[in-house]
Design brief:
This protein has 300 residues and is of the alpha+beta class. The protein has three domains: 4-86, Rossmann fold (3-Layer(aba) Sandwich); 94-113 and 176-288, ATP-grasp fold, B domain (D-amino Acid Aminotransferase, Chain A, domain 1, 2-Layer Sandwich), CATH 3.30.470; 116-173. The protein is built from eleven helices and 13 strands. Strands 8, 9, 10, 11, 12 and 13 form a six-stranded antiparallel sheet that branches. A four-stranded antiparallel sheet has the order 4-7-5-6. Strands 2-1-3 form a three-stranded parallel sheet, covered by helices on one side. Helix 1 packs across helix 11 (285-294). The longest helix has 17 residues, at 16-32. The radius of gyration is 19 Å and the shape is globular. The chain starts with a strand and ends in a 6-residue tail after the last helix. The mean pLDDT is 91.
């Protein structure tokens, strides 16, 4: 009997457009793999979502990104409905999106993190709260949404409406050096990719615009650095209690690896890193999404 999969995409976070692309890619690949697929553009109307989820699908492929889709909210609804879904459960999803809490757990596990402090937008705008260069970022967004780097000579900071309305933001020491990313599948690291961009950093456009960045896979690094990066990524995945797939991002200053964040629902767009690493490991895109569906769970 053909398995029915509902693909959740869109949502209303700052990452809506990326989610729509991820969801469409995943829906097409699942159809290619032989699944019956229903694509659902999730709006801020839970009654409508519940209606679309009946009769219950055999599994939900969660292609939502950002707040409400990646932070445990939708996961909680699916747990109540007892529908298996891809990626992590409520707790791991919520903690991973809460950057200060995730960093606290990483540090307790021995994973190096950047020095940071929390401050209100008014405090941040009043002057430097740590030595430059430093990074300003929201505490609960993904895809580098809202991130700014304050360097020597850059004497201004502009907070958009969403950021200026936040109660707290993170001020984090900037880690110079190279950027590595490691995808985790079933608790195991797939590879180490070095991400390079001509932009100031690996921002939203660098992530998703064609030509915004280049990915070197495998990264040209010493074997001991590669082994350590993969170990730390696997540890970060386990520390937060993740399941399915995730992606850990690091900076390497030539001496130590520092984790930037762990993403419980990596992008599945044509420029995304997880599908690229899976392909490097010999796993096609239809095989990847099929594995994710077959390993879907819900928390009772």
């Amino acid at each position: 009997m053909t398995k029915h999969v509902a693909v959740l995409m869109g949502g209303w976070s700052a990452e809506r457009e990326v989610s729509l692309v991820s969801g469409a890619n995943c829906a097409n690949a699942l159809k290619e793999a032989g699944y019956e697929v229903t694509s659902i553009d999730v709006q801020r109307d839970m009654a409508a979502l519940l209606t679309r989820l009946y009769p219950k699908p055999d599994a939900v492929f969660n292609a939502l990104h950002g707040r409400y889709g990646e932070d445990g909210c939708v996961q909680g609804i699916l747990d109540i409905l007892a529908i298996p879904y891809t990626h992590s459960g409520v707790r791991a999803s919520a903690i991973a999106m809460d950057k200060p809490m995730a960093k606290k757990l990483f540090a307790l596990a021995g994973i190096p993190v950047a020095e940071h402090l929390l401050a209100s937008p008014d405090e941040i705008l009043s002057g430097d709260l740590m030595a430059r260069p430093y990074v300003i970022k929201p505490v609960n967004e993904g895809s580098s949404v809202g991130i700014q780097i304050l360097r020597d000579g850059k004497n201004y900071l502009v907070l958009d409406e969403g950021m200026s309305g936040a109660s707290q933001m993170m001020v984090e020491a900037f880690i110079p050096g190279r950027e590595f990313t490691i995808a985790i599948m079933g608790g195991k690291a797939l590879a180490v990719t070095e991400v390079k961009t001509e932009r100031l950093f690996y921002d939203y456009d660098a992530k998703y615009a064609v030509g915004g960045s280049t990915h070197e896979i495998p990264a040209k690094i010493e074997e001991d650095v590669e082994v350590e990066a993969m170990r730390l990524a696997e540890l970060a995945h386990a520390v937060l209690g993740c399941r399915g797939v995730s992606r850990a991002d690091f900076r390497f200053d030539g001496e130590r690896l520092v984790i930037l964040e762990l993403n419980t629902q990596p992008g599945m767009t044509p420029t995304s890193l997880l599908p690229e690493q899976a392909a490097y490991a010999g796993i096609s895109f239809p095989q990847l999404v099929s594995w994710m569906v077959e390993n879907a769970e819900f928390d009772e």
